[in-house]
């Protein structure tokens, strides 16, 4: 069991990120995944019982995936999970001319 950080007051983004990283580590430990697979966490936003983690999966697929994981956690217990997955647009595909994740386009 991974120790949990001490929480004070309302749900904190640091606690949410810790929970997501711990969950991801447990999932990856139980599956045979390519060693080139990489996950980059982006923004973590928490409000009430809900947490959204925005990140990028790369290195194992023809196109990087941009993922938003939506979690519901109550009293420190992970209750529900939803996700949104989208192929990462390159500079030519971007309608706004901005990257979908991070500050610059990947190569």
Overall description:
This protein is α+β, with helices and mostly antiparallel strands. The protein has one domain (about 15-85): Nuclear Transport Factor 2, Chain: A (Roll). Helix content is about 15%, strand content about 35%. It is built from one helix and four strands. It has one helix spanning about 15-30, and strands spanning about 40-45, 50-60, 65-75, 75-85. Strands 1-2-3-4 form a four-stranded antiparallel β-sheet, with helices on one face. Mean pLDDT is about 80; it is low at about 1-10.
Descriptors:
single chain; 107 residues; alpha+beta; Nuclear Transport Factor 2, Chain: A; four-stranded antiparallel sheet; 16% helix; flat
């Amino acid at each position: 069991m991974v120790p949990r950080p001490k929480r004070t007051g309302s749900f904190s983004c640091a606690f949410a990120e810790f929970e997501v990283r711990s969950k991801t580590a447990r999932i990856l430990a139980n599956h045979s995944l390519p060693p080139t697979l990489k996950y980059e966490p982006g923004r973590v936003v928490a409000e009430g019982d809900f947490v959204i983690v925005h990140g990028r999966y790369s290195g194992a697929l023809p196109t990087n995936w941009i993922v938003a994981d939506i979690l519901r956690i109550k009293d420190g217990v992970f209750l529900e999970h939803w996700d949104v997955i989208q192929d990462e647009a390159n500079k030519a595909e971007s309608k706004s001319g901005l990257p979908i994740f991070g500050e610059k386009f990947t190569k």
